[in-house]
């Protein structure tokens, strides 16, 4: 599952060492929020995205492997997911992430890998 938590080389090579914090995040079908936190550890890189009021202030942890490209001039990160796929993802739980980073990553990876394979998932409640 570590592959989904690794930025693809073609994404980072053009923009090495850019801090993505504060960048807008664009899903395949529109804007979803801003990067609240970005990590760059090999095999566990992700973005924590603050979705604002779009899904009632929830944050989502998005694995680095779904990042399609980064536009440092426009301060935007483009991901290969739709708004619904992100909305239906597990909530980001900061306390759990601190206490059990590996477990939290595994739970999220299972969801995002299903999305990448086109496996439908039941809609999750927004709360």
Task: Name the descriptors.
about 130 residues, alpha+beta, SH3 type barrels, six-stranded mixed sheet, about 25% helix, disordered C terminus
CATH superfamily heading: PRC-barrel domain
Poorly predicted sequence stretches spanning 5 or more consecutive residues: 123-127
Secondary-structure-derived class: alpha+beta
Radius of gyration: 13 Å
CATH fold-level assignment: SH3 type barrels
**Cα separation of the termini:** 27 Å
Q: What is the second-level CATH architecture?
A: Roll
Strand content: 25-35%
* Count of alpha and pi helical runs: 4
Main β-sheet description: 6 strands, mixed
Which geometry do the CA atoms define?
globular
Q: Spell out the helices and strands N to C.
A: HEEEEEEHHH
CATH C-level class: Mainly Beta
Average of the residue pLDDT scores = 84
What is the number of domains? 1
Biggest sheet strand order reads: 4-3-2-1-6-5
Task: Describe what you observe in this structure.
With 127 residues, the protein is α+β, with helices and mostly antiparallel strands. It has one domain: SH3 type barrels, CATH 2.30.30. 25% of the residues lie in helices and 25% in strands. It has four helices and six strands. Strands 4-3-2-1-6-5 form a six-stranded mixed beta sheet. Strand 5 and strand 6 form a beta hairpin. The chain is globular.
Summary of the model, kept short:
The chain is of the alpha+beta class and 127 residues long. The protein has helices at residues 9-12, 83-87, 94-99, 101-117, and strands spanning 24-27, 30-38, 46-50, 59-63, 67-71, 76-79.
Topology record:
Blueprint: H1 9-12, E1 24-27, E2 30-38, E3 46-50, E4 59-63, E5 67-71, E6 76-79, H2 83-87, H3 94-99, H4 101-117
Parallel strand pairs: 1-6
Antiparallel strand pairs: 1-2, 2-3, 3-4, 5-6
